[in-house]
Model the fold of this input.
Amino acid sequence: MCGIVGYTGTRQAYPVILKGLKRLEYRGYDSSGVALLKDGKLNVYKKKGKVADLEETMIGKVLDAHVGIGHTRWATHGEPSDRNAHPHSSASGKLAMIHNGIIENYALIKQELLNKGYTFTSDTDTEVLLNFIEDIQKNNNSTLEEALRIALKRVSGAYCILLIEQDNPDTIIAARKGSPLVIGIGKGEHFLASDASPIIEYTKEVVYVNDYELAIVKPDELILKNLGNEKITPYITKLDMELAAIEKGGYDHFMLKEIFEQPSTIFDCLRGRLDAKEGTIRMSGIDHNIDQLMNANRIMILACGTSWHAGLAAEYIIEELCRIPVEVEYASEFRYRNPIVNKGDVIIAISQSGETADTLVALEKAKENGAFIFGVVNAVGSSIARISNAGAYTHAGPEIGVASTKAFTGQLAVLMMMALSIAKHKGTVSHERYHSLLLELEEVPEKINAILKNASALKVIAEKYKGASDFLFLGRGYNFPIALEGALKLKEISYIHAEGYPAAEMKHGPIALVDENLPVVFIATKDAYHEKIVSNMQEIKARKGKIISIITEGDTTSTELSNDYFAIPPADELIAPILTVIPLQLLSYYVGTAKGVDVDKPRNLAKSVTVE
Ligand code: F6R
Done:
């Protein structure tokens, strides 16, 4: 949450920062701002609204500067407004700072500063931290770097901050704990950002800054230190990402592009790992730790949101194939309770961004208790990937649309391969079943292609139901998590209230909602539960609910019961969730766009939730 960008070098800083902010806008978009440093003068500009609103206010201003920082905000402390937007200026006006994270003990520090006579122009924790740093600098007569180090030892919470100082003309000082920071290394220039997307255009050499590290960044020099003032050698990695991957490529929205990328992202996810002909799955993270995984007393899956839904699907699949007990927990709950985690437990962490604060902290807690952490992560080099003992990347490429789509199907594919691999080693899956599931997995990209060819049919359905005020999504067994995911997608990007339920649970309460105005989406593909779900459809029809069903091609029973339906190619019930979710992603996309919602940046949301 919140995107930060910094630049120091020979180029004009403003255009680099502005472009970077646009790329990072998925992280927050309620206000934005920049601070530019030139000839000992600090100029701060900020504006409520999207980055485009800031851009408009900058027209006609003299923006010549070679050092600057910029921020796009997802509000935590203080409503979205010009005055709460970042960068913040210190009391003397000599420092400017941007921040991604939350300073948890800000109230205490603020009181201390108020007692000393400080006043504040915003409601943010960031302004408190900034003045705290300046106060230390003044009282100790210290450099900004020293003052920052002292201040950070006193604050609790999460931060990635960038600071510039009037009297320090070409330097950006940065620090991180719990919120991401990447530094791009150019020739005589450095780029700083929350992720690599603002950097990729200029350089592929980057340094991922770790927690409790400070960076002193000048055009020709990058110094990394820990909070104890010891120097650390920067570890330079090469970005494996192309600029095209973070651009819309002719699509109206990133979300649509990402939905349509799924045949290739799943192909990339399977490539080099799964060979159905040979009957092999090769994943080094699994192969090197197979004993640990197959002998787990229990597997616990920790994740949030859409990734949690992938975890729920994995619970059903792993228990079925591997006969290992699985528990799926919201990371945000796990971290605050007193969970039982024993040595011999395996934790699977699922995350697209690899930076979700709740998941990260939950993992730290589980690790302290001796659990083995296996990360299923999309963002390469992210914090969750790094904290994990082992893992497997989903290889879906950068996901920019705020609603997760291609990362979800990538997670399902990785978790499926993981379950099959463990089951084969454990001997809990028959030879025939193992081979047929491998073949089915290999066919997924082709089947997704077939679904996408009929996308326009979902546009028609979306038009018909876009006026509904509520939706119900029902599924059973392996498709129950997909019902939850369908409901979440619709809520996120159309602002229509939607609930996902196991279809059999409907009669225990939600059925009271059913009337002639309620669209009920059934995920009713041919599987072991099919007859049961057809009975549930009958129950809805008897109460005049409108049935939209996702069915298997050729299933005439379901078509007769449905007001509208969308057919997908036949698939094994364990594989079907990777397919059934695609029409639901498209349905919510088309409902959202028909309602005029900015589906890539729906209100109140942000990708990469780096605050609690
Ligand atoms: C929904 C969505 C969120 C994320 C959740 C976890 O479309 O994107 O629910 O799934 O915030 O994020 P990651 O997977 O990055 O840990």
